[in-house]
Amino acid sequence: MVRAWESGDRPVISVAGLTKSFGKVRAVRGIDLDVARGSVLALLGPNGAGKTTTVRILSTLLRPDTGRVTVGGHDVVLAPEKVQALIGLAGQSVSVDDRLTGTQNLVMLGRLYRLDRKDARARAAQLIEGLALSEAANRLVRTYSGGMRRKLDLAASLIAAPPVLFLDEPTAGLDPASRMTLWEVIRELVRDGTTVLLTTQYLEEADQLAGTVAVIDGGRLTACGTPAGLKARAGTAAFELTAATAGDFDRLRLLLPAQLDAAVPDTRTVSFRADDTGVGGLRSLREIIDTVLAAGIAVDGYATRQPTLDDAFLQLTGHGPGAAADGKPMERNEA
């Protein structure tokens, strides 16, 4: 059993033996997850891996076929109302009302969560300012851009300051500045004790936010651990050298063929693996450079590249986060 969190404390989110099928399609095939209080778990996987289906079950929008799922100690099937009182959810589709202003949307939701009018307006103003929507606060939502609507939808999921927050690709469609703003909002929530489970196609996002990363592929949990731990599984560092000329590039490729990992003619850049099995035990950038210079090869630049979460993801699944199991792009609303 692969578990996403091991702790002596009772997990806030607990999933055991979860399965879900849609006709002949087996979207989830026996997932086990424990998520500790005040932590961030990122679910990564290619489109169609089962991430959204898992989130929809955890948030009581779907019933599992088998398995037991609890949130805050409450069973999502036996006590959905108690689970719903604990959670906030931002799904892939925007769910705000076009006929209201941004402020009106948030105040209405605050009132539905039984905040008094004063507190609802104060919370709405706090979220609008925190997500850089102040200039559009009193405009009808139908005039918002796609990114602005996405930010308002995220604010809606936070209006009641829920102890458990599910975010399904929360920054999809946001510009880089808005994405970093949302990251800081999430960090503040976690510092205050909120438990966050998010899915994302941005591996940098998981690296920045998550203490634990779980990889789902084909409906199964295939790996989990800290971002650093998963990156370590992807191998050791790579040394990149950029040749001064096309001739130097050709000589670089021939110099250490046993260690050559990649060569890109358009950039005149070659990559060498850093490991203990290379020719002559070349295990440091300095040794690589000394060998190249001794051979009279001119270089314009060099760098060390550590394994990334992208490398780990590709190793674990065989394809990128935006592709299906066969490597082909899929629609965003995947299982």
Characterization of this structure:
Helix 3 (102-112) packs across helix 4 and helix 8 (227-233) packs across helix 11 (309-317). It is globular, with a radius of gyration of 24 Å. Strands 6-7-8-3-9-10 form a six-stranded mixed beta sheet, with helices on both faces. A four-stranded antiparallel beta sheet has the order 2-1-4-5. Strands 12-13-11-14 form a four-stranded antiparallel beta sheet. Residues 1-8, 276-282 and 325-334 have low confidence and may be disordered. Among the domains are: 13-86 and 162-232, 3-Layer(aba) Sandwich (Rossmann fold); 236-306, Alpha-Beta Plaits (2-Layer Sandwich), CATH 3.30.70.100. It has helices at 51-58, 80-84, 102-112, 117-130, 146-158, 176-191, 203-209, 227-233, 246-255, 285-294, 309-317; strands at 13-22, 25-35, 40-44, 66-71, 74-75, 87-90, 164-168, 195-199, 212-217, 220-225, 238-243, 260-264, 269-273, 299-305. A hairpin with a 2-residue loop joins strand 1 and strand 2. The protein has 335 residues and is α/β, with parallel strands linked by helices.
